[in-house]
Design brief:
two-stranded antiparallel ribbon; about 5% strand; Four Helix Bundle (Hemerythrin (Met), subunit A); 4-stranded mixed sheet; alpha+beta
């Protein structure tokens, strides 16, 4: 049994080291490490399921984590994660999965009595390959080749969530104090409250991941970073939104489960981020974006957010149909709160015909409908930004857009005949003060009874010298 354990660890690790010698690219090796972590966390979860279903079990031995021999665990994770990934150029994914199935079908019976197989162990093997090995391979291969950005970012979120919200707490409970009973034993109403608080805490971090992907072209993994400096979204308020969200979730879990060990893990994470990860990240970003990074870090703190957002460069633009009642109300709402780095424009002056509100960032990023308005909320202050990030969560944005289209303001073309008139009003708003905006938008089923435009006060610290004044229609009538 001892020889079997040594071979289970040594053979996969030696194979990984040999394959790593063929790959000189540092980013590819980092992707292999990510695949290993995904495999290790997935195998630990698979072992929990196997004990409950009777697929397989392990003989009681020393050096085990919750009944899973650590040496076998590490070797298994190396076999399912980095090894096939490093050999991806000669080992296509279907062939890799087939070879893993064949190897496990031979090796697991041969490891008796260390491994005790149940009558349906092949079902567990199939579940493991599909739920653990396949995602680990996709994550590693896509990160190594920088393909499928949205999918690999989503896989990273899933991995980090499992690591943060399940594996680390379980490890803390195993080695220290606390248990999941503190959470699972809560009444349904309190459990719902905890879930809502956790979602609120996680929202800025999730928005930051999305910002990395859609505005920066990268992911949270340090060796798969954004290609551009990201200073929008949560990063307009805080330099470390993901780290802060992760630590807050760990501390929330520690408080609910009563685990001092888990709280200590949160404190260690903060110390590591401040003393190791932070300086490394600053050195890297200062080298890649010397001017932009210095200006940004001079205004943004690591762990304490600003109340009003940081903005640099040209203003973003929100196009709204000011002849439509709901759109005009949104315009007035935003203008009265003096958004930072945001210009409001009548949709009638847009080059094309807009059917929904449209947000255009300084970098050309575009969003429409409810998502456009949610983006605009990021320019007000931290409270409204949090509401905007919540509105843009997957599923929430779709539902909000569905309700808006059905009950508030269906998609409709802005009245193109008002384009010239609206442009005249914007140009002369500083002299006229308030002027009538013309006829109603013909396509809007809930038009404003009258539209007015007036210059909106702007933040002196963020207004661009060449930007036009922001018209702000007061309430109709």
């Amino acid at each position: 049994m001892i020889v079997a354990r040594h071979l289970s660890l040594a053979v996969p690790l030696l194979a990984v080291l040999a394959a790593a010698r063929l790959e000189r690219d540092r980013n590819v090796r980092a992707a292999a490490l990510l695949a290993f972590v995904a495999g290790a966390v997935g195998i630990a979860a698979l072992d929990e399921a196997a004990r409950r279903t009777g697929w397989y079990a392990f003989a009681p031995v020393r050096g085990a984590y919750r009944g899973l021999p650590v040496d076998l665990w590490i070797g298994w994770a190396a076999l399912w994660g980095p090894l096939p990934m490093l050999l991806r150029r000669v080992l296509p994914l279907p062939l890799a999965l087939g070879l893993l199935l064949w190897f496990d079908a031979v090796a697991m019976p041969a490891l008796h009595p260390l491994v005790r197989l149940g009558p349906h162990w092949l079902v567990g093997e199939a579940v493991g390959l599909l739920a653990v090995a396949l995602p680990a391979q996709l994550l590693g291969r896509w990160c190594a080749d920088r393909r499928h950005l949205a999918a690999r970012a989503l896989l990273q979120v899933g991995l980090f969530a499992a690591l943060l919200l399940w594996f680390v707490p379980t490890l803390a409970f195993e080695l220290g104090d606390g248990s999941w009973a503190g959470l699972t034993g809560l009444p349904a109403s309190r459990l719902l409250l905890v879930a809502q608080v956790a979602l609120l805490v996680a929202t800025p971090a999730l928005a930051a991941v999305r910002e990395f992907a859609v505005r920066g072209g990268g992911t949270p993994y340090p060796w798969d970073p954004p290609r551009r400096l990201v200073t929008t979204g949560p990063y307009a308020y805080l330099a470390n939104p993901m780290q802060l969200g992760a630590v807050a979730l760990v501390l929330l879990t520690a408080a609910v489960t009563g685990s001092l060990a888990l709280a200590g893990a949160g404190a260690v994470a903060v110390a590591f981020a401040a003393a190791v990860a932070g300086p490394h990240e600053e050195h890297d970003l200062a080298g890649r974006y010397p001017e932009g990074w210095r200006a940004y870090r001079g205004r943004i703190r690591n762990w304490w957010p600003r109340w009003r957002p940081y903005s640099s460069g040209p203003d973003a633009v929100l196009w709204l149909d000011d002849g439509c009642g709901p759109c005009a109300a949104v315009w007035r709402f935003l203008a009265r709160r003096h958004p930072v780095g945001l210009a409001l424009r009548p949709a009638a002056t847009h080059d094309g015909v807009l059917r929904r509100a449209e947000y255009v960032g300084a970098d050309g990023h575009r969003e429409r409908g409810v998502s456009a308005v949610a983006r605009a909320l990021e320019h007000v202050h931290l409270g409204w930004a949090l509401a905007g990030w919540t509105l843009r969560l997957p599923g929430v944005a779709w539902l909000a857009q569905l309700v808006t289209d059905a009950m508030i303001a269906p998609p409709h073309p802005a009245n193109a005949r008002r384009a010239g008139e609206a442009g005249t009003q914007v140009a002369g708003a500083g002299e006229a003060g308030t002027r009538e905006a013309g006829t109603r938008g013909e396509g809007c089923p809930t038009p404003s009874s009258a539209s007015w435009t007036a210059p909106s006060p702007r933040s002196g610290s963020t207004a661009s010298p060449g930007s036009r004044p922001v018209p702000s229609p007061p309430p109709p009538g």
